[in-house]
Amino acid sequence: MSTFPLIPDYVIEEELEFKTRIIDFESGKEQRQAQWASGKKRFVLKFKNRDKTDYETLKTFFSDMLGQYGSFDFTNPLDGLTYTCRFESDVFRGVKDTPAQIMSFECTLVEVW
Fold first, then answer.
1. What CATH class is the domain 2-111?
2. Domain coordinates in residue numbering, the chain
3. In the chain, which ranges are E strands?
4. pLDDT 10s per residue in the chain (113 long)?
5. Quick one: which of 48, 46, 54, 49 has its CA closest to 100?
6. Does pTM surpass 0.90?
C-alpha cells in the first residue's frame, strides 16, 4: 500500500464521525442503532509556503491514487498513529502565492476500513 508523501503543517483539522440510525416512535420514544462499530476520522491537511516540488509531489500522488479511488497509509503527526485513508474529493486544487512559486495548498483525507 502507498504512503502519503508529505508531512503537513501542524494546523491539522481532525474530525471523528459516527453513523447512528435513530427511529422515532409515535409514543415519543426513540431507538438508536450504531451503524458503524467505531468512528471514522477525517483530516484536513494544510501546506503553507511550500516550494513547487512539494506541490508537484502531492499532485502526482493524487493522480496516482486516481483522486478518491485509491487508499493509502497516512501517519498523523499529532498522535503518531497510521490510518488507512483516501482523498475526500476527486478535485485537486493548489494556489500559487508568489512569483517565486511558493505554494499553499490543502487536501482532505477520509479514513476507510
1. mainly beta
2. 2-111
3. 2-3, 13-17, 20-24, 30-34, 40-50, 72-75, 82-87, 94-96, 103-111
4. 899 999 998 768 899 999 999 999 999 899 999 998 999 999 999 998 888 899 999 999 999 999 999 999 999 998 999 999 999 999 988 776 667 778 888 999 999 98
5. 49
6. no
